Amino acid sequence: MDDVDVVIIGAGSAGLAAAKTIRAAGLSFKLLEAMGRVGGRAWTSDQHFGVPFDIGCAWLHAADRNPYFPEAEAAGWTLHHHDMNVDHLYYRKRKASEAEEAEMKAADARLFELLAAHQVEEGDDDRLSALLAKGHAPRAAATFAGPMDFGADEDEISIRDFQAAADLDPNYFSKEGFGALVAHFGADLPVELSTPVRKILWDVPGVACVTDRGTIRARAVIVTASPAVLAFEEIEFSPALPDTHFGAFFDLPMGMLTKLPVEIRGTRLGLQPFDDLLIERLARHDIYFLCFPFDLDLMVGFVGGDFAWEMSAAGEAAGIDFVVDRLCNIFGADTRKHVARAMMTNWGGERFVRGAYAAARPGRSEARAALMQPVAEKIFFAGEHLAGPLIQTCGGARLSGESVARQVAALLAIG
Ligand SMILES: Cc1cc2nc3c(=O)[nH]c(=O)nc-3n(C[C@H](O)[C@H](O)[C@H](O)COP(=O)(O)OP(=O)(O)OC[C@H]3O[C@@H](n4cnc5c(N)ncnc54)[C@H](O)[C@@H]3O)c2cc1C
């Protein structure tokens, strides 16, 4: 393979954006992607339901700062503004009373007040659960903030990390799919698909990236693989990375969000398109449904955190049965007659992703800043896990890719 100025590892949102920025700076590059498609965690597929369905990211978060949003508008995408607001709350099989719904919303608001006021001192318990205990908020207040949004349970979330993340309103959905939008964004880029980078040598002039199809030398490399992929040492660094960086991969473990969409034909179950339905259960087995988005025949179930990992281990058939049983519990046994196709996403099983998105370990939120420092001015990291206040989001990943690529271009211009 030809030598280039910059190798970019990964053609997800961050890698595509980095490649576009490097190209705009007039530098040569190679964009290497392990999977047989672009987009990474941005992936729209019509294979399951005959209509575009986002297996990965779906909400265009922080639309007022999200570079994909104006592009979706310009492309004539069908957009729907949808900020989270629990319309239907159940405690197991029982519909919550109005008072209980109000209590839950108040507890949710209280959690954010507590977060805004909280100063983490050295030696403090940095787990979100500690804050909940202090504010005596019911655990349900953290269902969205924790497993459904952060992909992690409240005792695995760092308060500092959580505080640094932005409020993601306003949020939009697109009918055509966020994954399709990202693929459209990267469509004019040359990508070497099915080309995992196995090793990066950096005790040579520049770097040498070893793949099964040959080795590419470059002046710098931008690595956008998730921290879990890096912690599993899918890419070997030679010599080994400094502890600051290698340790940071482990301090940014992946949270999990699993989607369980079920096609429901011939009834809307008394629900409106885009209603939010939450079933609070016991021991973190909560499940959220986005109801009939765009009036499609789809109830999209979501489970997050440890329960989502458990569900992945139980397998798709068990996951689908769980969701259908929960719907039957609430809407009656007849609901089963309306169930058609269904599926379960499996991001934990994607070798080159290994989870949904990173959440810093309590007490370890500084790992993000550590990874933002280049190694020897030639190994740079980018991706959703390094996206500042827009961490965990696809728009944030793109901004991270662009920003790091600008940094690389500036450095190579001097060197
Ligand atoms: C279920 C789910 C729901 C989500 N919902 C939302 C949402 O609604 N809104 C939102 O904004 N975000 C959401 N996200 C998060 C969003 O999808 C990610 O933050 C974003 O897509 C990450 O982009 P990235 O470029 O950082 O990483 P990735 O998309 O993971 O891209 C990295 C790429 O690197 C490749 N790679 C890894 N190792 C190698 C290697 N050795 N060699 C070559 N290539 C390699 C991978 O195959 C991958 O394509 C969701 C994610 C999941 C999983």
From TrEMBL:
Residue ranges occupied by any Amine oxidase domain in the UniProt entry: 14-408
Record's keyword annotation contains Plastid: no
Reactions it catalyzes: L-tryptophan + O2 = indole-3-acetamide + CO2 + H2O
Pfam families xref list: Amino_oxidase
Classification via SUPFAM superfamilies: FAD-linked reductases, C-terminal domain (SSF54373), FAD/NAD(P)-binding domain (SSF51905)
EC numbers for this chain: 1.13.12.3
Secreted in keyword set: no
Gene Ontology BP terms: auxin biosynthetic process
Molecular function in Gene Ontology: tryptophan 2-monooxygenase activity
Record-stated family: Belongs to the tryptophan 2-monooxygenase family.
PANTHER family the UniProt entry points to: FLAVIN MONOAMINE OXIDASE, LYSINE-SPECIFIC HISTONE DEMETHYLASE 2
Protein name: Tryptophan 2-monooxygenase
UniProt source species: Mesorhizobium amorphae CCNWGS0123
